[in-house]
Amino acid sequence: MSEPVDVVLIGGGIMSATLGTLLHQLQPDWKIVVCERLSEVALESSNAWNNAGTGHAALCELNYMPAGPDGEVDPAKAVAINEQFQQSRQLWTSWIEQGILDEPSTFINAVPHMTFVQGEKDVAYLKKRYEALKGQPLFAGIEYSEDSRVINQWAPLLMQQRRKGEPFAATRVPAGTDVDFGALTRQLFAHLESEGVDVVTNREVRGLKKQADGTWKVSHRNSLGKTPGSFSARFVFVGAGGWALKLLQKSGIAEIGGYGVFPIGGQFLKTTNPAIVAQHQAKVYSQASVGAPPMSVPHLDTRVVDGQASLLFGPFATFSPKFLKQGRITDIVAQVRPGNLWPMTKVAIDNPSLITYLVGELLKNHAKKVDSLRTFMPTAKDEDWELIQAGQRAQVMKKDADKGGVLQFGTEVVTAADGSIAGLLGASPGASTAASIMLNLLKTCFPDRIEGWKQPLTTLIPSYGETLNTDPPLAAASVTRTAQALAINA
């Protein structure tokens, strides 16, 4: 076997692209190889039409700030999510200034983030949420209104033919964004290839085995000709979406024991009708249905992909046993191990409302889905909207000392004790917070090098090691700088 490579990145999505670009800048002498099983990078979760493109900053997503049992709200998680997105903005800004990324409008555009709720209970909640956030430096500029005339100015489609006497309220942050993570991912990999990094497509990693010398044997095959091969690597990152669980299980690391994933697909209603698109310039989120997972919070979004604006509404949950959109129907069964059987069973027992929700979603036809849209847009017509299939999300199931097993939302990095291999499980807000996730991975997996990397990391991300929200002048300066550089001034 040839000399080991320094880093192998499995999966051609935004996570591998971000980590690869960071490592190449920090250690330009390292040999990095990227393995993607499909014919191109960014075809799964990072693809523009496989996600909603929300630059998740907790400006409008209510699931990051739920009401407690006493009805009170805690802004801590929302602030933390926003901090993480600010790191992504700073990193993208530096990469634009260095010529690594193209013109900002090729991957990010200003789109206000709104929340819209109906009914006395949700109106009261939203007002509490607004009161808790308006004094937070990273949420400066958030607006609140229960006035139909104001909300009509913000998003006319929400208010046309709205029934009078119905309580409703909205918040708005003009500085929200829409992000094409597919374009962003492709640009980063194109840069890496221009720098000599091997980005190999149609290469499916089939096995990972720790060797006596501490390196990993990475077994693979050509996705087309099925030709097998292998090489060794000093560090492996598994950023393969839902397949990360399968590969980490094959690695045999103890840390993956007890983990399972539950695949949930999605569909969106989409329109490109210019007369409709022109009336809505916002991403508008609301409350999730009872039993629905947080990733299924309904929202009516402006999308900008390849320079063309459209509107999406959804998501509507679908079910497939595949862990990826282009996965295998055996995925959901093949993950079962003695260590995760009980946690997964316990999750099924404890979440009957999720099963009820999924069944209800699967029974909805096109007309019923447009009916759901009319909750947001009373004037919606069936013929203006088409259904598109979004990506697969693999929600994490894991052991829990008290409950036996829990369904966990968000993302989680699983790392071997020696830091030689790590993988990412979970879904939203992953892509938006890729910078923060990868910075934490660098600390965990390269503890002997992180101190030496501190200066270049601070150059790339000026707030590295600091907290913006506790320093209002620093927060304002950071937001202003990145807004100007990314051309997202609202």
Automatic annotation (TrEMBL):
GO BP: tricarboxylic acid cycle
Keyword Kinase belongs to the record: no
InterPro entries linked: FAD/NAD-bd_sf, MQO
Record keywords, A-Z: FAD, Flavoprotein, Oxidoreductase, Tricarboxylic acid cycle
Bilayer-spanning residue ranges: none
GO terms of molecular function: (S)-2-hydroxyglutarate dehydrogenase activity; L-malate dehydrogenase (quinone) activity
Pathway: Carbohydrate metabolism; tricarboxylic acid cycle; oxaloacetate from (S)-malate (quinone route): step 1/1
Catalytic activities: (S)-malate + a quinone = a quinol + oxaloacetate
Oxidoreductase listed as a keyword: yes
Entry EC no(s): 1.1.5.4
Required cofactor names: FAD
Classification via Pfam families: Mqo
Protein family: Belongs to the MQO family.
Name by which UniProt lists this protein: Probable malate:quinone oxidoreductase
